[in-house]
């Protein structure tokens, strides 16, 4: 490892800590579940990737393989999990901050099988 390697690893760890800390701040400050979920999922993914890059700087092949495997699994599972949680919250009628025109006081807009879906609303299963 070169002279700059440990400093680069330290900088990436600090970057990861800052990004994850901002995500925690977003969890506390955001007004609804959808924005909280966005803050949490994006910051965790980006923070862990920064930690993974710091581990890759070590240059050990065993560590690099494990870190790359963890990073790929996180890249695949974090967006899917966030989408599933957000969809469950939407289907259960969790209110959104500000809302939009497709929602009413009674919950999400729905349609029957003969109607074509427009923008907004919940797709039939």
Helical content band: 55-70%
Compute the number of helices. Answer: 3
Averaged pLDDT, please?
Answer: 81
Q: How much of the residues is beta strand, in percent?
A: under 5%
Q: Sketch the major β-sheet.
A: 2 strands, antiparallel
Class from secondary-structure proportions: mainly alpha
Radius of gyration: 20 Å
**What is the H/E string?**
HHHEE
* Low-pLDDT sequence parts: none
Strand order of the largest sheet: 1-2
Number of strands: 2
Terminal CA distance reads 55 Å
Shape: elongated
List the helices and strands and how they pair.
Layout: H1 5-29, H2 33-56, H3 61-91, E1 103-104, E2 107-108
Antiparallel strand pairs: 1-2
Helix pairs in contact: 1-2, 2-3
Account of the 3D structure:
This protein has a domain at 5-61 and 77-95. The protein is mostly helical. 64% of the residues lie in helices and 3% in strands. A hairpin with a 2-residue loop joins strand 1 (103-104) and strand 2. The protein is elongated.
Properties at a glance:
single chain; 125 residues; mainly alpha; two-stranded antiparallel ribbon; elongated
Task: Summarize this entry quickly.
The protein has 125 residues and is mainly alpha-helical. The protein is 64% helix and 3% strand. It has 3 helices and 2 strands.
């Amino acid at each position: 490892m070169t002279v700059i390697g440990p400093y680069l690893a330290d900088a990436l760890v600090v970057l990861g800590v800052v990004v994850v800390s901002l995500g925690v701040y977003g969890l506390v400050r955001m007004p609804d579940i959808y924005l909280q979920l966005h803050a949490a999922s994006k910051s965790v993914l980006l923070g862990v990737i920064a930690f993974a890059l710091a581990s890759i700087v070590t240059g050990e092949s065993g560590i690099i393989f494990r870190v790359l495997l963890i990073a790929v699994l996180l890249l695949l599972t974090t967006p899917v999990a966030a989408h599933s949680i957000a969809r469950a919250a939407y289907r259960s009628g969790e209110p959104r901050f500000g809302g939009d025109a497709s929602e009413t006081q009674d919950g999400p807009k729905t349609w029957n099988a003969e109607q074509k879906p427009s923008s907004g609303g919940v797709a039939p299963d």
